[in-house]
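Reader question, answered in our methods column.
A reader sent in the components of a multi-part assembly and asked whether the whole thing could be modeled at once rather than chain by chain. We filled in our standard form and ran it. Here is what they sent:
COMPLEX SIZE: two components
ENTRIES:
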Amino acid sequence: MKFDIILAGVGGQGVLSVSAIIASSAMQEGLAVKQSEVHGMSQRGGAVLANLRLSDRPIASDLIPRGSASLILSMEPLESLRYLEFLSADGTVITATNPVANIADYPPLDEVLAHVRGLPHALTIDAESLARKAGSARATNMVMVGAASPLLPVRFETLERFVQTIFAGKGAKVVETNLKALHAGRAAASE
Amino acid sequence: MNEMVLLGDEAVALAAVHAGLTAAYGYPGTPSTEILEYLIRRRREHGGPRAEWCANEKTAYEAALGVSYAGRRTMVTMKHVGLNVAADPFMNSALVTVNGGLVVAVADDPGMHSSQNEQDSRVFADFARVVCLEPASHQEAYDMTREAFDISERFHIPVMIRLVTRLAHSRGIVTVGEARAENPPHRDAHASAWVLLPGNARRQWRALLDRFDDIRAYVAASRFNTAEGGADGGFGVITAGLARNYFVENLEDLPARPAHLHVGAYPYPAAAIRAFVAPLTRVLLLEEGYPYIERALRGIVPPAQLDIQGRESGAVPPDGELNPDIVRAALSLPARTGVVVPGLSLPNRPPQLCAGCPHGDSFHSITAALSAFPDAIVTADIGCSTLGALPPYNAIETCVCMGASVGMAKGAADAGYHPVVAVIGDSTFLHSGVTPLMDAVAADTPMTLIILDNKTVAMTGGQPTLRSSSELEAVVRGLGVPPAHLHVVEAHPRRMAGNTEILRREVNHRGLSVVIGVRECIETAKRTKQEQSAAAARE
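And here is the structure of the entire assembly that came back:
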């Protein structure tokens, strides 16, 4: 079993937290994991990409080869289209529909979403409103983890446990909000 | 528990602790920053070992030298271009008789994700004549760092650990070993080995060169250089660094397994390389960085019987970072394709200043103040302030190296331009801007220096600056900048008109002036607020 994930978004959207929760959960379940992150300059509002590789065999490369990713999980619709060269023919794109339009030439959102929905396996999630309902727009990234969860080779209970662990330092309220967001994302993906 | 999930940077940091580290120093720089951050966090939680940010890489290196002189184990961390700043102590420390183990952890940035060049530190290690170990996995990052301390004490030289971005910032599993105790303080009995007067330096240099037979023997026997036979006739592959992983990633698609030599310990094992290529007719060099082994192998008169392929032959691109697909093409395997959407073209999303960033307000003031001076030159520097080069600001013209804005402004003014304005962040100023400002004071250069004081080292994630914001004015005044032309202003939109007026006046002044624009980075301000509310929620 091999499951390569491209995690995409814009600096500040919590891409690295998404990566950390999925990676920790996979390791907990005994899978080999390599997780390559982007730090530094591009975190300043630029396009952010993380490579997350899960396998039941040793993994050589930290970077995902072209045409190999089982999943592109994006916090932002435009960014969900940036790395399609890495998606395998039967891979899935899951993206939040909420744009970060911090560039002057951001294309019309309808066009971007039409491109996504035209892909063979795609799922769009209004993650921000689900996160707000769960208690905070800041939990948008956990909605996306929930939305990806049916595809991930990881038990949902393990993801729940790591959401609790990672947010424990921020108080019970934050943990509760993020757990609700995780469940909301999973429910939306199953509809 | 002896299995841990660590960033490559963290594996180096933890290995240093387990090797008996007494003190570590560094200056933040992507992708090296997380080494010292890990040690600083650990010191806060466990009370040691000592780990501190320094003014720059040179001062950090010199502090580490002092620890080594006192007999204890030490590490200094920096990004590749930081080693240029520390080049003077680095080169000379190869000649002293290193006492306590001295490890130089340098993180290169092939592909220039967050850097102004992609220099390969293996070449620098060769220049200094020291051992360099280059990990290709998290486990090697840990094992090599531990071994580096032993090697440093065995050969009495600094030892370099060369990391690259994709290992420094990748997480993997590391099996850790037993911790070793710190060395007790003990001064070297032969202290004249550290007095590099010409007579001593000649002796020390020769002694270093004489040790090279032993160093080569160490490298020849190193478990980090590995050779495997192949089944592809006269074809073999030499890998260095992460290229090994990209090679292995493609291995199962190759019709026959080529012979494979991996180099992880330097000086490169020349005898092993000669023996490896002897039966080959074609060799492919895959190096994450410069074609360093390739150039040595090719030489000026290439071996007639051997087809040498790599970055210099065009089999691999001459620049940039490697990845599984580039290595795949070099191995003549068919390209993999992903999903292609016809007619889709996406706008780039370059990095930019955060909404509400104080630097943005400063750039607006600078542009407004200079609107009457179409010939003005604006030099600038490294850090978040470099983003002023991009739209919507387009406010600066140069970014070369730490502190260069100040010296370059002096030079441009000396060349006859007026007005000349230099823009630099507070941490970059403390790193390398103070000394060129002294030059400008001495010459009363007609230029205006604008220090953007956001009270943090912002680009690398908000490390504390070495002196607090409130002390910056005293530092500048102490250098001799005339008080009448030294201003501290608040970099806030509500002060825009007044700040612009002050800038316009000082830009017009035919002498040296300094304007410090102060407002905390919104990222660190937000983080402080979040930490406070989280602390309150826990109570």
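What stands out: The beta strands of chain A are 2-10, 32-36, 47-55, 69-74, 87-96, 122-125. Chain A touches chain B through 59 residues (CB under 8 Å).
Send us your own complexes using the same form.
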